[in-house]
Write a structure and sequence with these properties.
Radius of gyration: 21 Å
Distance between the termini: 30 Å
Strand content: 5-15%
Shape: elongated
Number of strands: 5
Helix content: 40-55%
CATH topology of the largest domain: Rossmann fold
Strand order of the largest sheet: 2-3-4-1-5
Largest sheet: 5 strands, parallel
Number of helices: 12
CATH superfamily of the largest domain: P-loop containing nucleotide triphosphate hydrolases
Low-confidence stretches: none
CATH class of the largest domain: Alpha Beta
Length: about 270
């Protein structure tokens, strides 16, 4: 990898999918979703839903929010991922463990214990924030736990602020649950990038890695967009493999043929 970086005049790899905050590129729609989440949290409005297809940047926003508020001592932030949780009781116990609240023998007693803890935190000006990633896998009983949490409140403020991040089916599930849908403060949908935004992201990451002008030709950028479907995660993966192909060919530029070959290697199809 050092040889590749030297070849392109870079200090570090520009196209990794690891959640490095310095490489977080926010499009206007990502900024809208982020600001909606921040408004919900800081105004203590309760619940926000961020949804979209795989690879549209939901987890990037979740990690950004987690880092932002974890660094602030007035907030206590928990982040849950739901795939391994099978029941509403397991979900509740997982949340309580994140906040250091002891669980009780019954589900109802655990809810009561968490309510007491949330009330105490509010009285001490400690702001509880719960982020749930992969929330499309939450069952309706798990979502009912969230609805109960949103009943922990004063006349003007919720004791815990919840942001759910999930694929598009999450919004459909919420639509079918009137009691919780009525409590949603923000619905933020993330869609694939436009072609012009694709080049902006490539340029942003390239410069963040210490480079100057990125080496992707206009046709190569178009191919990145077409084969990735405008999904940020796929763009990054495809750009990484394409860059390696340019290095192997000792080329200072990444040409469209290299992107097409990289797409074939990654089993990506045009417009998929």
């Amino acid at each position: 990898m050092e040889e590749v970086l030297k070849h392109f005049g870079l200090l570090e790899p520009p196209f990794t999918v690891s959640p490095n905050p310095r490489y977080m590129f926010f499009t206007p729609q990502h900024k809208d979703a982020l600001y909606g989440c921040q408004y919900t949290i800081e105004q203590k409005n309760g619940l926000a839903i961020i949804y979209g297809d795989v690879g549209t940047g939901k987890t990037t926003i979740a990690r950004h929010i987690y880092q932002k508020y974890s660094d602030d001592p007035s907030y206590s932030v928990a982040m849950m991922v739901t795939p391994d949780l099978k029941t509403d009781t397991a979900f509740l116990r997982g949340i309580m463990a994140e906040y250091g609240v002891a669980t009780k023998r019954s589900h109802a007693a655990s809810i009561a214990a968490f309510r007491r803890a949330a009330t105490k935190a509010y009285e001490q000006d400690k702001n509880l924030v719960l982020l749930v990633d992969e929330a499309q896998q939450m069952t309706k009983p798990m979502l009912e736990v969230i609805r109960v949490f949103l009943n922990f409140e004063t006349n003007s403020s919720k004791f815990i602020q919840v942001i759910l991040f999930g694929q598009s089916e999450l919004a459909t599930t919420i639509d079918s649950m009137r009691a919780i849908k009525s409590r949603v403060n923000v619905f933020g949908e993330l869609k694939p990038m436009a072609e012009s935004t694709t080049e902006n992201m490539i340029d942003f990451r390239w410069r963040a890695a210490g480079g100057k002008e990125h080496p992707f030709t206009t046709d190569a950028i178009q191919a990145l967009f077409v084969y990735s479907g405008g999904l940020p995660r796929e763009i990054i993966k495809l750009a990484s493999v394409s860059l390696m192909r340019a290095y192997v060919n000792k080329s200072p530029k990444v040409h469209v043929t290299m992107v097409v070959a990289a797409a074939k290697e990654l089993r990506l199809k045009e417009g998929e």
